[in-house]
Fold this protein.
Amino acid sequence: MRNLNELDDFRDRGFRVIELYGSAGDSGNGLFRIRSPVDGGLMTVIASDGYDWDHVSVSRTNRIPGWTEMEYVKRLFFREAETAFQLHVPPSLHISHHPNCLHIWRPQRVDIPMPAFWMVAPHPAKKI
């Protein structure tokens, strides 16, 4: 994950955040208010880097964030060369504290396995 001090313009330093978390965060943790690239509405982003994981949660008050918003947040919070993912678990493992929240994860100590590129799309230089 990128150094979150680079995103201080978006960092929420309000009394409620300090009361809830004990501080406004640091280089790897914090709560941020970011405008959606889709409609300009506020997205609440909570980022953390503990227990060998980088984690970002993205929520809206009125709806679940869409692909464009999640991609925008991923680009803001993670370095360009980092792979991160949304995890789809069985319904029996769903844990939700907010009905309109999605998560982005990145393990810090292992690479995320990826399918071969040809399994995703044809190589642009090859004709089908």
